[in-house]
Design brief:
about 160 residues, globular, two-stranded parallel sheet, about 5% strand, two-stranded antiparallel sheet
């Protein structure tokens, strides 16, 4: 859902971004019925989405890597330890991005992410508990709706930070 929401908010700001999703667990397949239904109600089509397993190549190509939880980001760093300067918990990138300020025109997204990562406290893992948004997989429709509500604001704010 985060991928769909972030792509939606970036698109609303005029950017046709390449937003991809990859999971730290090993299953593949379409988005859950609940995720498709919840985002469809927001005008976002997730019906063609297929999950894929996270790999070092996927992380290596990404300018910015987001996880909903610290465990997700830990999985990213297990695949690509060098991605620490561009892998964030969703709430963390927004919280620190506010301090760094919007990405200036001409500065690459990867460079902006590195500047944001430099604002982390030294010798600490990425994110705080308050930055996390629990993954709703396996839960009911109401939990998916609540999760989409929690994801929507940081996705919109991140879009505004990277495309001021």
């Amino acid at each position: 859902m985060a991928m769909g929401l972030l792509a939606h908010h970036l698109g609303a700001r005029g950017m046709d971004a390449r937003v991809h999703s990859a999971g730290t667990l090993g299953w593949g397949g379409p988005a859950t019925d609940h995720a498709v239904e919840v985002l469809a109600a927001r005008g976002i089509d997730l019906s063609e989405h297929l999950s894929r397993r996270l790999s070092g190549d996927i992380v290596g190509e990404a300018d910015l890597v987001l996880g909903m939880t610290r465990d997700h980001v830990g999985g990213v760093l297990a695949h690509a330890p060098a991605a620490g300067d561009r892998a964030f918990v969703m709430g963390e990138v927004v919280r620190l991005g506010r301090k760094a300020g919007p990405r200036p025109e001409g500065l690459s997204l990867r460079s902006w992410a590195t500047e944001v990562a430099a604002l982390r406290p030294p010798n600490r893992p990425p994110g705080r508990g308050s930055d996390e948004i629990d993954d709703p997989v396996g839960m009911g429709l109401e939990v998916y709706q609540a999760t989409a509500d929690k994801l929507d604001r940081p996705c919109a704010e991140l879009a505004a930070l990277v495309l001021p």
